[in-house]
Design brief:
Elements (H helix, E strand, L loop, with lengths): L2 E8 L4 H5 L12 H13 L7 E4 L3 H13 L9 E2 L16 H9 L7 H7 L2 H11 L8 H16 L9 E6 L1 H11 L15 E7 L2 E9 L1
Parallel strand pairs: 1-4, 2-3, 2-4
Antiparallel strand pairs: 1-5, 5-6
GO molecular function: fructose-2,6-bisphosphate 2-phosphatase activity
Protein name: Phosphoglycerate mutase
Organism: Secundilactobacillus malefermentans
């Protein structure tokens, strides 16, 4: 397996973002601010040579990826590889629901009525477990469900035989996924009380099965 530099960008702002709605496997379009923000990120990455690009199969991620790749002046990659492995957490019954209301339903029975309370008292992983418990259909992903899927995404990148040591790879990701990655791999070095900004850049190093955080939530 090659040692890779992974440039992880959160998708541009969407309408569900400004409406404060949970947006996992559901989707809403990029706002004009989201498009402009993606273009700003694209300008910063225009001279970074990418050997490949990946994103979830949601339009907010694909649109962000295409904006970045269209502005890139040095890469041969013109479109991303899409996969459901890279989707945001699945919120089940609560897809599209108000974020604060949903986390109250999930956390209040455990004495933690807000997402930040669940995170600080337990963990982001435990928030996933609480939400699956609260889902009347029990379709929301718990922590184990979530990582089994996300890990398949990382394997998809690692098993790309065209990639070689030192290659740069673009990955368009999502807010809770970035928080989850930092909780799992950030070694407690990063402030996760604030969500990563739309269009922000996080850099990871993939070396075999090892994931190392280089930087997080760069504007």
């Amino acid at each position: 397996m090659a040692k890779l530099n992974l440039y992880v960008v959160r998708h541009g702002q969407t309408y569900f973002n400004i409406f404060n709605k949970l947006q996992g496997w559901s989707n809403s379009p990029l706002t004009q601010k989201g498009i402009d923000g993606a273009k700003e990120t694209a300008a910063k990455l225009a001279d970074t040579k990418f050997a490949d690009a990946y994103c979830s199969d949601t339009t907010r991620a694909m649109d962000t990826a295409n904006i970045i790749l269209a502005a890139n002046t040095v890469s041969a990659v013109d479109h991303p590889t899409t996969s459901p492995f890279f989707r945001e957490e699945f919120y089940g019954y609560y897809e599209g629901n108000d974020m604060n209301q949903t986390w109250y339903v999930a956390g209040a029975p455990h004495g933690v009525p807000m997402f930040k309370d669940i995170q600080s008292t337990y963990s982001i992983g435990k928030a996933k477990d609480f939400l699956k418990e609260a889902d009347p259909f029990h379709l929301a992903e718990n922590n184990d469900d979530y990582w089994k899927r996300i890990d398949q995404g990382f394997e998809l990148i690692r098993n790309n035989s065209q990639l070689k040591d030192g290659d740069n790879v673009l990955l368009i990701s999502h807010g809770n996924t970035l928080l989850s990655l930092m909780e799992r791999y950030g070694e407690g070095k990063y402030d996760l009380s604030t969500r990563p900004a739309n269009g922000s850049l996080t850099k990871l190093e993939l070396d075999g099965n090892r994931v190392k955080v280089i930087s997080y939530n760069q504007k």
